[in-house]
Amino acid sequence: MIGENDILSFNYLKKQAFYGSHAGMRYCLRRAERGEDDQKKTVLEAVVWPEPLNLAHTAPELIEQEDFSFSTEGREEAIAWLNGRYEAEADRWESRKGKL
């Protein structure tokens, strides 16, 4: 289970992306912009993908992504989503753990 203390603070996420892994599932929380130039909205993007590759080298069909409000509450919701994705497909993540 990914806990609140496993993810760096919201103030960290304001400046940099956070990458981590849990039992075969890699994840990232990062600031992202959505919408057109005049209607841009800042969101907290949560991304999951299976080990062992990094995000840039993982096939797009293996990547899942969800947006949350760019706030402390959004960070909490994103952590809950990460845990939900892990629990929903624990066998998928475990089967990919450490494999190339």
What does this structure look like?
This protein has 100 residues and is an alpha+beta fold. The chain has one domain (27-96). The chain is 30% helix and 31% strand. The chain has three helices and four strands. It has helices at 10-15, 72-88, 90-96; strands at 18-22, 25-34, 41-50, 64-69. A four-stranded antiparallel β-sheet has the order 1-2-3-4. A hairpin with a 6-residue loop joins strand 2 and strand 3 (41-50). The two termini are 24 Å apart. The model has no long low-confidence stretch (mean pLDDT 93).
Question: What's this, in brief?
Answer:
This protein is α+β, with helices and mostly antiparallel strands and 100 residues long. Helix content is 30%, strand content 31%. The protein contains three helices and four strands; from the N terminus they run H-E-E-E-E-H-H.
